[in-house]
Amino acid sequence: MRLGVALDLSSQEPVRPQVDRAVTLLARAERHGFDSAWVGESYHAAAQPFHLPSVLMVLGHLAGRTSLALGSAVLLLRAYSPEKLAYEAALLDQLCGGKLTLGLGLGGPEVAQRAGLPASGPAGAAFDATLKSLRDAWSADAPVAVPPPVRRGGPRILVGGKVAASARRAATLADGFYGATNYCDDLLTKQSAAYWSCRGGRPDGTEGVVATTRFCVVHEDAATARELAARHLKAATGYYTERGLWMGADGPAEIELPMVGTPDQIDATIARYVRAGVTSVQLRVAPFGMPPEVARHTLDLVGRHVLPHWHDTTSASKRRTPPEMGQEVETLR
Fold it and tell me: Using only C-alpha atoms, what is the Rg of the chain?
């Protein structure tokens, strides 16, 4: 299991001060031993407490300000031509020293419209063709993208989706599966199982990735953690709720916050994820509206009391098992 930090950069505030605060938070995360920083992408007609557009531009800025590995969670394919994406991702991989993971999603038709591209965008077979096009452009033998990526064959690619075809695509054409914040645990577990089934086995420490992003609020007292989450996650969780985007295994579900609680409860949640085949979790500790001191306290508690149990491991057999492992994790409904 690897733990990273997912950044929330909102279009409701000036961008540079947000990024400066994020860089400070990432320095703290790096001192604790977190391994990566992830940024999402959205295209809106009005300001929202959510992601900025042009995730590669944001990550390119961060590449010069942190030594953490970088990831997009996720880049929306409908905002890019495959050819342009191949060049820009290769250049970003160079800027961050070959430590880029490219998380890809489709995005709705409005994304293409706002990016000035055909509204149909890649879907189904065309999505698959885009993945192949990226790999071809990064071929070590005759790369189309110059300069080419640092890593042979290009950055690691993760793809998401809530249907069986998404898990198959992740297993056969990409390097791993990505479960978004709004995927409930049942859906994440279902897609993880489908992904590993397509790959022919569970994680062995070197091959395959199942990553997810989760809102995270941690406190020494469970009730306080839940109260802080209820008070300060409203803007971010409301974005999903207003659009009916909380996804269960077979459709919409109520909000789940499995990474809200005490360090022991967070540890138990991660243990459950590992049993489900998840190999990487990105923590959204500072969404829009979260006081910086609460985000720092969450990061410190996870860094001191949770991350040491899991750093750079892929199975429960490789870690110390705390006595609380069997406890159920409290969730906020």
Answer: 19
pTM given for the model? 0.90
Phi, psi for 145 (deg, rounded to 5): -75, 120
pLDDT at 325 over 50: no
Where on the phi/psi map is residue 278: left (φ > 0), alpha (ψ -120 to 50), or beta?
Answer: beta
> Domain residues of the chain, as ranges?
2-326
Fold of 2-326: TIM Barrel (3.20.20)
| Cβ contacts of 201 within 8 Å, gap of 6 or more | none
Q: From 135, 136, 140, 134, select the one nearest 152 (Cα to Cα).
A: 140
Please say whether the beta carbons of 195 and 171 come within 8 A.
Answer: yes
Where residue 118 falls among pLDDT bands split at 50, 70, 90? confident
Establish how many alpha carbons lie within 13 A of residue 191's alpha carbon, considering only the half-sphere containing its beta carbon: 32
Closest CA to 314 of 1, 33, 4: 1
> Over 80: is that where the pLDDT of 311 sits?
no
Following CA atoms 136, 169, 180, 265 in sequence, which dihedral angle do they give, to the nearest 10 degrees? -120
Task: Return the DSSP state at 317.
Answer: G
Interstrand relation of 176-179 and 210-215 (parallel, antiparallel or unpaired)? parallel
pLDDT band at 248 (very low <50, low <70, confident <90, very high): confident
